[in-house]
Amino acid sequence: MTDYDAVIIGAGHNGLICATYLAKAGHRVLVLDGRSEPGGCASTREFATGFKVSDCAQWFSQFDRSINKDLNLDGAGLKLSNAKTTISLQPDGDHLTLDGDHIAGAGVDPVDQAAYREFRKMMQRFAKLMTHLYRGRPPKLVEHNWRDRFTLMKLGLGLKMMGREYMQDMMRIVMINIYDVMNEHFKHDALKSTIALDAVTGTNMGPRSPNTVYSYLHRATGEFLSQTGTTQVIGGMGALGAVLADVATKQGATLQLDSPVASITKTDDRVSGVTLDSGEAISAKLVISSADPKTTFRDLLGYEKMEVGMARRVEHYRSRSGTAKLHLALSSLPQFTGLTDRQLGERLVITPSMDGMERALNPMKYNEISTQHTFDISIPSVADASLAPANQHVLTAIVHYVPYAPDMGWEAARPQLLTTLLAELEVYAPGIGSLVTASELIVPSDLEASHGMAGGNWNHGELSIDQALMMRPFPGSTQYATAVDGLYLCGAGAHPGGGLQGLPGRNAAKEILKRGALS
Amino acid sequence: MSLASRDTMLLTTPFHSRVAAMCDLNDWGNWMGYTTPNAYFDVELEYFALRSTTGVFDLSPMNKYRVTGPDAQRYLNRLVTRDIAKLGINRVGYAIWCDDDGQVMDDGTIFRLGESDYRICSYQRADDWLAWNTLGFDVTIENESDTVVGLAVQGPTSCTILTLLGCTDLNQLKPFGMAHYTFEGKPLMVSRTGFTGDLGYEVWVPPESAEALWDQLFELGHDYLIKPIGGSALELARIEAGFLQANTDFMPSEEVVRVGRTRSPFELGLAWLVDFSKPLFNGRAALLKEQANGSRFRFALLDVHGNKPAEHSFILKGDKQVGTVTSAAWCPTAKANLAYAQIEMPHGAVGDELVAEIYYQRELHWTRLLAPCKVIEGPIFKSAKRWQTPAPPY
Predict the structure, then answer these.
(1) Helical spans, DSSP H, in A252-384
(2) 0.90 exceeded by the pTM?
(3) Do the Cβ atoms of A490 and A14 come closer than 8 Å?
(4) Residue B329, beta-bridge partner list
(5) pLDDT tens across B122-143, in order?
(6) Quick one: fold of B296-376?
(7) I need a labelling partner for A269 at 20 to 30 A (CA). Which of A192, B69, B284, B308 fits?
(8) Which among A298, A305, A309 has the least Cβ separation from residue B280?
(9) Chain A residues with CB-CB distance to B100 below 8 A
């Protein structure tokens, strides 16, 4: 008799969702996490007295609504803000706004407006098709399994049903880059770079990198999965973690925080449990890891416990990230040129032209600090006063591109990067620097340390076709099962990947139940 | 050793000056990029030197890798299918290694030189594979192929000759044992190993000792009828003794490009080298599956009727083709016409009666022969001297 049916490593959203589905089916589930709060990347932290930020994920836009329904998260207290408009900031204050099918401002002309509607229509068709694929286990191509064949048949049919033109276009563009696709559709530079930002957020890629159409579509599936638009969680992203933890424990799962897992135990040919940093050993029929594949296999299981082909797959799995986060405590609401106070609560992005984004990427490739960056800014205290002291505000921004290990070392690079970023913001929000009472820069290696994600990559591995679908995270360890018996994956390193969708956790639980792996 | 010969574009070994001087037939072959003799003076006479006196074969083109470091034993145990923990210091073990699909990559010998000090002697170059396998292990791999060279000294008089060379008490060395000596101030290591199935040794020295070693062996061995032997004579001896040859009897799995052309240890009759009591080794999961579900092929030793070697023959069961021959020879000492074959399951069990479809040519005239053959158990040449300790004097 094992201590638990399943031990889940990591109380991130995927780990908790997986735990809830399994507990709901009557299994004894233990969720372990090294952090003191549940939620993983759905976390909120007070980084300066009275100022709270969602220190990893900041937007809620892709969460699968079927999970919300199955687990009744709304009933458990999940509150969201209104959907945000995306405002692409221009130095002259004539900003470009994107709201659904409508774009305006910054001199965008009717031709581009029409092209944008057509582009959205096409992308939505593609994303919708992908959504079907995302809600189930990814089909393997070579094994003769009727479920996989059925999924592939449905996919083929779906492709065909889009009509010849769309089908050809999808097959043509899915392997190329967002830079070329933008230039095929639009003239307006800011429009192109604003869309391109969605393709590279959280990745280690620039607009010209192959796979960026796939990563764009990955984000675009959010529109169908979530149907909330881009929103913020009231109380901070940590409130989502708390709600998920609450739901999981109510279903009977045991949640044990402050309990870092030191290693995954393998007895003979099977994983049989975990050992905590404290030395405590816990046995289980299955170990389900929501940690990223590198952490799971390299650090917790250990290369010496797997055959060499698998060790090489893990070693070569790409999980670097060029994404940092900037947190600012502001003594009052900042003034952005051309924005009303109300608009400060929207999603504000700063994207140099696509060429500018590529130039920002280049120094990162050579472990240097760039002089220009992209920003994806939220001032969550506008819609949620609980996040900052009265009349004061907190700003959080996703920033690209930041090297993982700058040659000059982070001690020297950190103040330099912070100064650069504040100067870049100053162009759009003159005087913002004087409002800053506290600041924090979270670079990829910080995210790696604080959230246990190899490379600091919140997608738990690059979102690219070679690491997607039936190849995520790598051949031999797909469909949530791994090459090691008794060890499953339920995090963003499993299909369909990252982005606060909750699908890896849900799909993994469903697959485990369908296989009867716990009985 | 890395100097290319002026004549052949191939590399030559440190013994080359002596080898070339004795190679009366001037019959050269390419062994893994090295110029090596197929035969020195007469294949049959060379073969009979191996069986009756002593034959010397230049082993230098074999690849040698030193494995050291705290995790050396654990590393090797993950690499190969047998349990290396059972290998004592100064002992040698025959081993095979597989990829993750449980398909044989190569075979070779592993020498345990110290507590955490091993040498792998392999047929194939394995630098990349051995390097990949270091992930997660604290080991150092050093390619010693150019710094350790060797001669196989094989046959009934070999122990006597090597004792004259200064290998004191060599007759006490057990099969698969190793002994260390000095030769002209340099280390010389002898292992009681070989590829002929009889009493025999392999002598390992640094390349600078090569020519002097050769000269002294042939001087001291003169009265014991020592002869150099080439690849063809060794091939005869190893088929007779039941040893597999990589690239002949199986394709190293990394070299294979066509689906289904690799072989597992079970399909090569090497199940005895697979130790499932080890918790992990490359190929374990796939081999467990194969053990449960059955193999595709069976390795069979065939006793073929008549005296025509069944080289490259199809093997038939009734009208149906069920296999092919990988190695074949008429074996002079065993006086048997032997063939190694890969037979599709379920055929090829010991005692199974099959037919070899042999084609041979005499004076431009081709003849097709349907020779009955029978699957036999174990190697056909068995020499008591191979296992005797002390080694019998001559």
Answers:
(1) 293, 308-316, 354-365
(2) yes
(3) yes
(4) B338
(5) 999 999 999 999 999 999 999 9
(6) Elongation Factor Tu (Ef-tu); domain 3 (2.40.30)
(7) B69
(8) A305
(9) 307-310, 476
